[in-house]
User: Fold these one by one.
Assistant:
Number 1:
Amino acid sequence: MTFAPVPRVSPGDLVAVVAPAGPFDRESFDKGLQVLSRRYRARHDAGLFAAERYLAGSDARRLAELQGAYDDPQVRAVFAARGGYGAMRLLESFQVRRAVPLIGFSDLTALHAVAQKAGHRSLHAPVLTQLGTQGAAVVERLFATLESPAPAPAFQGLTTLVPGSVEGPLLGGNLSVFTRLLGTPYLPALDGAVLFLEDVGERPYRLDRMWTHLALAGVFRRVRGVVLGDFTNCEEKDGSHTSTEVLTSLARETGLPCASGLPVGHGAVNVPLVLGARVRLDASRGELTPLEGLVA
Amino acid sequence: MTFAPVPRVSPGDLVAVVAPAGPFDRESFDKGLQVLSRRYRARHDAGLFAAERYLAGSDARRLAELQGAYDDPQVRAVFAARGGYGAMRLLESFQVRRAVPLIGFSDLTALHAVAQKAGHRSLHAPVLTQLGTQGAAVVERLFATLESPAPAPAFQGLTTLVPGSVEGPLLGGNLSVFTRLLGTPYLPALDGAVLFLEDVGERPYRLDRMWTHLALAGVFRRVRGVVLGDFTNCEEKDGSHTSTEVLTSLARETGLPCASGLPVGHGAVNVPLVLGARVRLDASRGELTPLEGLVA
């Protein structure tokens, strides 16, 4: 399976900010918007700041906003304001009718999957409300990825969990959200892929349960390798075991080449990663090399 | 789909206690064993008390114990010592070669699913380490269900979430565990079923995420109705929304007859419930009536 690049973005282009998942505070939004507006013309619906329980407004509101941004040819990129939870609730109605860069992570894993299902690459990267706290290097790399077809530099110094070297399209995202696509029509074609996973706030036995779900669903018979990002705040409080030892055991059970330590996810640094783009994972050397970029 | 009754148990019969999931403390075990031993001859492997991280010993140990109990024709019932996590890890190896009553809940939802997959009924009921703290009424009903083919009395006074009346085999169990079977070969045939769900320690947005997983996997197009047990410790700490209001919204979205308040799950009272047995759910009247028992 190959995933097509999406059209490139240029400085000054119109981009849309949407909130298909959880609500967020205005201050983080304003800071992020300031960063984004240095480069692009950002627009958002007036209803973006809605909050109903754990959602940024009703399903109808979030869907109309997302679909509207996707369907408007003037919009050259779609940025998620925040993850949290809620994108999954839109999957049965949302339609990808156009190739456009989608930017976000965590709960947005569900929308990335739909983009990949439509055959497009997309950008696993900080949400808008994080842009104000991510360093300049991450922001520069985000803009560069949107504007140039060049693959990003390789990640080095990863930890080898299972040695071996493989190539394939990079797919995945947040473990909790990605596993919620198993058994649904929204799981992208995983055959031959390198699976990327990260998570936050999940105890080790829950990581095991989700990983075992992937195993029972046959995912590790389909993908070629696994690369792990941050597993933030995933430790057992009593210290009896660590997420690192549990993930290491789980990786070894798959027998697939696997490396950990990618600076991607819910940690302080969340480096952009192109989903659907081919990568080389050399787990023996601790390297992940992007072979393709996001845009044409 | 119909599920066959399993052979009945008689006082004095040999029964096995197994620990296919998490480790447990010896005191709760001894108290439960005392209750069980008043009625049956209980045996267990010497390795039952093993503990490795969150598991009651290695996968190999837990599998050998479980498979051994299932395969020994002298054993007339298989009681789980505790839930927690770990039964899922055995699914690819465990084989149901005989109809025998299986007793447990929570993480054991994974084993119930395998029993139902094999066409058998099984017993959603307290694990052994809870028998000492469950009231006499629950224990008596547990024994009666194992020993007599008579259906249990109806549950009344349930809360109507969506009115309507349906009949079908009762399937399901713990929401967290049951949804981890989606997309795997271990999900039982749900067509025409009444789906039972309970959970513990899951925030409302997580209940929504799991329920939405069921929806996206097409479960609510297959089952006829839904009945909810206890959702223990599932409240948002800031009180901004409750599990009850979230579950009520979710139930209404399905449009299926749905009632809540079954005294089953992780609350103080965990009344036995026969999975695979036909029930009538009259959500309008707030009644769940078992139409079949566990045993022949």
Note: Chain A has two domains: 14-147, 159-290.
Number 2:
Amino acid sequence: MEALIEMLGNATFENYVGAAEGYTEMAYQMSAHVLTLGYAVMLAALLYFVLTIKTVAPKYRTSSVLSVVVMVSAFLLLFVQSNNWTGSMIYDAESARYMLGDGNDLFNNGYRYLNWLIDVPMLLFQILFVVTLTKSDFSSIRNQFWFSGTGMIVTGYIGQYYEVTSPTLFFVWGFISTLFFVHILILMKRVISEGKEGAPPKAQKYLGYIWTLFFFSWMLYPGAYLMPYLFSLSAEPAMSEMAVVARHITYTVADVSSKVIYGIFLTLAAQEMSKAEGYDYESMENAL
Amino acid sequence: MEALIEMLGNATFENYVGAAEGYTEMAYQMSAHVLTLGYAVMLAALLYFVLTIKTVAPKYRTSSVLSVVVMVSAFLLLFVQSNNWTGSMIYDAESARYMLGDGNDLFNNGYRYLNWLIDVPMLLFQILFVVTLTKSDFSSIRNQFWFSGTGMIVTGYIGQYYEVTSPTLFFVWGFISTLFFVHILILMKRVISEGKEGAPPKAQKYLGYIWTLFFFSWMLYPGAYLMPYLFSLSAEPAMSEMAVVARHITYTVADVSSKVIYGIFLTLAAQEMSKAEGYDYESMENAL
């Protein structure tokens, strides 16, 4: 194992498994399918956000625009991430398993991380254009979102390079990243609580959903980061393989929830607020 | 045969045939052409749904938006599925047949399945934004559609991994998937019957078409799932080959019918309903 790690340099868990025991057809393909689903959802949702932008009053449209920005960047990065997977592993007929291809690119989740460098600030800013803050200052919250969002991603990005080669560094960087994450959760809780005050009842309901969705979907990311350790790094091949598939699925579920479903709920909340303020898209005579 | 299956791991029928006898040029290319036709139709229809969105009153436009979402995701997934086919098989000059390429990616219909994970709920929700339910509850029907739609796809997805290696598992998962399908059919029948009540006569006519179309086009999917057994797995090469081509054709016909033609009929029904409610796109002076 030591020799293998040395050979791989900053091995990610995916390459480590691919070089050691490889993947069954089912594990390799489930990963490929899930990664493909991920970017397809982003492009599909991009059109949703473009086509529904006029269902909300002009003051709320920045939220849709930010969703569009997130969809474009997530689509492209997840597309590259997906090709990174299929381009790393090749089918070895002798062992009937997919192995890390000789001379192929290695697999690394870093594409996702740099995607988040765009998406995380956008997703956090987005809600500020829908809710009305009663006590907190818009600029202050925005800057704190930006600071902790960026801090969380950069430290997590560095940490993920050490998931196999240096557990200590992996956990230290992961811990720092988590501190930023906790700060974001506290801020978001405050934003949603203030936003609910004075919002029409149906919008309040959607804001409630958004908090639950935000909490659970963002919690999936640290889970995916820790996946090699949750399934135990030194376990038997079938477990390692399962950890890799579980990570792909977890990231995809988290991305779809925290970007697409979150954006849809914000659109629905904004539609209710628009109606309450006299902007009713459905009753417009010549809605264009 | 046992050795071949072992070599292929969770062999799909397509790989099994490709590794054993391979495909004639005609069988390989008909498959390639049909798969290409599939994604081309989706991109073409995407434009149709975008460009006709204003021919219906605002309250019906969600149906068009959902058609667009379905077209984008289906286009991308079918594009990858098509490349999966051409990337798996290579022409072997000696036998003058297309064979599973050594070291190439294997073929798997799983891309389709995960595409349906997006499309099936969207297609089922879509009709709820066109018809008016007289007795049933919108949220209840929507949740049941979502539950059974997802259940049907996930169980079918797992099942298709065993089509060659474990007929028992293949049929058990397929059977569970069919139970969800029957539930969906019952729900859809109810939705369409209620939707017809009070709808203008021409819209009623289109809703009638939609039920017939829905019933037959969705029935094609279990047919495609069972294709290796419909043509008998142990039959001679020419039959196996025909089963593979027939499956590609069946899936494509089903996809075009259940997504594109279904969406067009819903648009036509919504146009009639819009007219009956005083929204007449054709008579608008400066329709934009």
Note: The longest strand of chain B covers residues 89-92.
Number 3:
Amino acid sequence: MAGYLVECVPNVSEGRRQDVLDQIQAAIQEVKGVAVLDRHADPIHNRAVFTFAGEIGAVAEAAFRLIREAAATIDLRTHRGVHPRIGAADVVPFVPIGETPMAVCVELARRVGRRVGAELDLPVFLYGEAAQDPSRKRLADVRRGEYEGLVQSIVDDALRRPDFGPSRLGPAGATAIGARPFLVAYNVNLRTPELATATAIARAIRESSGGLPAVQARGFATADPAIQQVSTNVLDTARTPLHVLFAAIEREASARGATVVGSELVGLVPTAALADVARDALRFEHLDADATIESRLLSRTFERWRG
Amino acid sequence: MAGYLVECVPNVSEGRRQDVLDQIQAAIQEVKGVAVLDRHADPIHNRAVFTFAGEIGAVAEAAFRLIREAAATIDLRTHRGVHPRIGAADVVPFVPIGETPMAVCVELARRVGRRVGAELDLPVFLYGEAAQDPSRKRLADVRRGEYEGLVQSIVDDALRRPDFGPSRLGPAGATAIGARPFLVAYNVNLRTPELATATAIARAIRESSGGLPAVQARGFATADPAIQQVSTNVLDTARTPLHVLFAAIEREASARGATVVGSELVGLVPTAALADVARDALRFEHLDADATIESRLLSRTFERWRG
């Protein structure tokens, strides 16, 4: 499995103490072959998100060290914030990059989970694609009751027994480790003064109300009163490619007398998501994410450094 | 300028002796931070093309070593092949990757050219975007008369004086060093039994006969007698993006009663070329090549290893 590139997007329950976040980031960066792409701390949520990537071996090691460092520096008994959480290293998802199969990330989540349970004596719940039980697929279900509720239920309730580690909660709480596709944040702007139009379109296209698979959506006002926004998260662009989503929003807008003025990506997108759009627009007979010079150079660079 | 990623696609006048090509490749790979992406040797042309990439400092060093190795192992006095050439390391173009500006490659070409002239005592002609005179922009003009003709004209003709190095030709000949955009090889397949239709469309769309800027095109038959192909090289997808070219071919085909069945990329494409297509299809308000996880990881990886 060497050579597969993956991303890891851990959420830790600390968004205020910069020195603690620096220590956690240092624990990630100690590992050769890992690149930290982003760090975003939210003091209201009292939570931070790191984004790092590299080959699976390096990413597994960095994820383990991050969890160890977070567990040593964050105490859930005194942690307050508006975001749901069950532990210091609250959620640790692995995300395939480029041609990496999802199965690689599932295996990685289970391997890291087992090690965290055994070496750090922390309870680990496997979620997302790595879940070993359908009831743990959704993160919200794993996190139900949060840290405070889980203290008792992890002991009493056989259904809340962790996949790895002890059935008891210490000050560092528990960690949800999982695998999921790359999440794309994508917004479409509409010319209409009516927020209700954007809200209605969001409802029409999102999976939860019978719309497109893997799509979450909400309507938002923008700074310009003439423009409203349909803001989406696409949890898996292989299930709903961006051009399919765009066309659906355009159709729904047109049916309501609004026009699409443009769209935007928030943050990063996998090359494969752009390749899907280009494949449709140009009727490519074949085109994979590894067809870009950047993707190819990325893989060869890691191969080269691996030696 | 550190941190800029560039590709180098040197053509050497050797396509038969694998041991010589191995030595030349080894000279490139000696340089840390350079990844060889491809090597293609053609025994009929008696010529080989290497593709390698990395940050400018590493690529400059690897290009220099490649030229030195080629000059030491290839003798133009006995070289025969059907492809035009003036030297052992015949053509050395630098190509921007990702967000790298063309000016960086122009500067790189001139820097490497100066060093090759001074340290290897080889004549160097700057071409493409790095040309210091408009008459040297086109590679065909720089290579006019080939090695055999240049032996005399480099001495006699003031207009053939090299940009760097001596005005005389040794056994290793001269080297054209330049900068150019990434070349994309892109084919569109048509349902028509008539090769003449593909040929006429190629003529209508290519720059040389008044068509789209930076587009070269020819008509080809395919293995399927019902399908003909318009085969193109796009020398600069910023000037003619792929969706513009595709739409033009579709229009021309439709005017001639043929239909487009699909298209294909040959080899690699810059992420920016796919991003252009996606930007048009989804009316993105902004989207740069650095918006993909792969491009971002690539830059951060190089930053990281640079330390």
Note: Chain B has two domains: 5-179, 184-269.
